[in-house]
Write a structure and sequence with these properties.
This protein is 36% helix and 21% strand. It is of the alpha+beta class and 281 residues long. It is elongated.
Length: 281
């Protein structure tokens, strides 16, 4: 009993700035190892570290809340969270396992598997920068996608404005603002990636990478400025295809607020042709 009481005191000290329900769940977990208690504990730990204005997302149990874009959890803050989670749950978390965790739901699924000794869920739909650059005709410094996720005929992607982009020196002097035209360019690039990485059935076959070009953009609205250290969180969805045109709609969010919207982005494209030898055979 003395050992249990000591552990309870240690937990209360470690979690002293967490919600009381998270502390009580941690004490109960220490005795029972009940995995159903883990989400309450982890959400409480994250709540301790994030800014007050985003805490309602955690309290609403929103599994779709994104760690960086919605909650402001960058890599350094994630390390602090992981240290406290490891200490509280008496588990070890590999850095490599954290690379695919992008949402609150991802964290819950990961820790549930970790506690139960099950295989760690993989998120194979996430494309890192190297994978994006490998298939895109656009290349740095004119590639405004750092990672993306493809889901059927919808794609989500992000771009972190570092502040080192050369064009920011003149847009504007002493007041760097990411150009609205490049926000639309970023949406168009995400649409290109969707065309190249999704099933060719939607477009009548595999799309030829160097054949995709911008045609038009209608229904554009820009709602706010984005500046260095902001993260553009983009989404495009395929609306219709009538070869050689494909039309998409797209939106950009930053810190959970709408930044820009395009009702119709039109791209022209060609399909890959089979080698002449295979056609003759």
């Amino acid at each position: 009993m003395a050992t249990t009481h000591l552990k309870e005191e240690e937990l209360r000290e470690s979690l002293k700035r967490c919600p009381e329900k998270a502390i009580e769940a941690a004490i109960a977990f220490n005795e029972t190892r009940d995995p159903d208690l883990v989400p309450v504990i982890v959400m409480g730990i994250i709540e301790r570290f994030v800014e007050p204005d985003v805490r309602p997302l955690l309290r609403e149990n929103d599994d779709k809340a994104r760690l960086l874009e919605d909650l402001g959890v960058d890599s350094l803050l994630m390390v602090e969270i992981v240290i406290l989670v490891e200490e509280t749950l008496s588990i070890h978390i590999e850095n490599e396992e954290l690379r695919t965790l992008r949402t609150v739901g991802d964290i819950k699924a990961y820790l549930d598997a970790k506690i139960k000794g099950l295989p760690i869920p993989s998120n194979k739909n996430i494309l890192k920068f190297e994978e994006v650059a490998a298939v895109m005709p656009h290349q740095p410094p004119f590639l405004f996608l750092q990672e993306a996720r493809i889901n059927g005929t919808t794609a989500e992607g992000s771009y972190h404005i570092s502040g080192n982009e050369a064009f920011l020196e003149g847009h504007f002097k002493d007041n760097p603002v990411f150009p609205a035209s490049l926000m639309l360019e970023a949406l168009g690039q995400l649409a290109v990636l969707l065309m190249l990485k999704t099933s060719g059935d939607a477009f009548g076959g595999p799309v030829k990478p160097d054949s995709i070009y911008f045609v038009s953009c209608d229904g554009v609205r820009c709602h706010k400025m984005c500046k260095p250290q902001d993260v553009l969180q983009m989404k495009v969805s395929l609306k219709k295809v009538h070869a050689p045109l494909a039309q998409f709609e797209g939106t950009i969010l930053c810190h959970g607020s709408k930044v820009a919207k395009a009702e119709e982005i039109s791209l022209t494209f060609e399909l890959e042709r089979e080698p002449e030898d295979s056609l003759r055979s």
